[in-house]
Amino acid sequence: MRFSRMKKSAAAALLAACAAMAQAGVVTSTLADFSTGDSVWSSWPLALNVGQFNFSSQGNIVSATLSGTFGNGFSSTTTEVFVYGDGVEVAYCSLWDDCATNSEVSPPTAFSYTFTGAELALLQDGALNLSISKEYDGYVNLGSLTLTLVNDVPEPASAALLLAGLAGLGWSRRARRPQA
Fold it and tell me: What is the pTM of this model?
């Protein structure tokens, strides 16, 4: 009887350990703050490359969110600016919005964009190019940008959890079988 309890306890511990290791397929990537210099203060209209997210993704991307701030450690404000991810408008700061009119002591204005189903196909190549365009005088200041991806691929720990569960079912079924 005591040996049977030890087996059950060991099986429960194994399942708990596997469950703790199982995580969703989440990939997070970050770009540093971005600021334009004096050379582009009066240049408009202007389009500039901000940077590129490079990531490796296994399986299909089921959701993707880009977040960041208008304003950064240099300045908590920005001029009117459009932010694009692979040609899709992901953020916009109007001259009349808080992101452009904050005082220098105000915190930067946060933004977030969740890619739709059709736009997720743009991310399957493992890269997201970010660019901006501005229509007026002024600096463009963006805080660090974060791209969060969720994949539909099960992690190895999830597969181990499934196998451990099936083995446990088989073991309990065998244990219940009458001895001849």
Answer: 0.69
